[in-house]
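Dear colleagues,

As part of the handover before I leave the project, I'm documenting each prediction I ran so the next person doesn't have to rerun anything. This entry is a single chain, and its sequence is reproduced below.
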Amino acid sequence: MLTALYIILGIILFFILILSIKVKMTVHSEDGVSLSVSWLFLKFNILPKKEKPEKKKKKKKKKEEKPEDSGKKDETVKEPKDNPFVTFYNNNGVDGVLDLVKRLSVSLGGMFRRIYKSFRIEGLAVSLLVAGSDSADTALKYGKTCSVFFPAIGFIVDTMKVKKYSVDCNPDFAFGKNEARLHAKISVVPRRLINAFIIVAFSLIFRVGIRFLKGLRKKVPKEEIINENIQ
């Protein structure tokens, strides 16, 4: 019995130690988005995705097409869901970075803030260059960008664990360039992330249970409630 107990305790301790090792992520955005994840001696380059060689199916498609449908466009293609990370990947310019920062700050104030707070930002550098069609338009766009960008960054830094950061936003009156650079090093301890997910899941179940009970209470006729109170 003692041997089996020692083995079980050893396995549990092994998994605790493994799940206590940090997972590190590096995100870089300038002329595209790159994302790499490393853990122990393993490293994975998630983005950019390697392009797969296209299969030669053009001839078959031409045979299957009818002359009536040759000029029509396929309207059945569904657009991707409104996801901040997908939006950032597709549009990683000033608008993409601004949208990502704004949505992250909003999420930190919601019910999933515990999950986001389990991540640690080891280093964050964001630089924006804002321009419009002319000087007046540039000044307007710069003002709007700053009114969203700096409060959102400030909230993220105050709420999350941030080791060091550097943010910069400037108007470009001379050349009229819109540029955005983002570099972030993020780490997370898997054990803390799992704990955060469990706590959030239990809180969601608790809230759903309360709403369900309230709904049942509303459906009960008033006469039955009065009779229960009298008894």
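Helices lie at 2-18, 58-64, 84-90, 94-108, 113-117, 135-159, 190-219, 222-230. The chain has a mean pLDDT of 79.

All the best with the project,
I.
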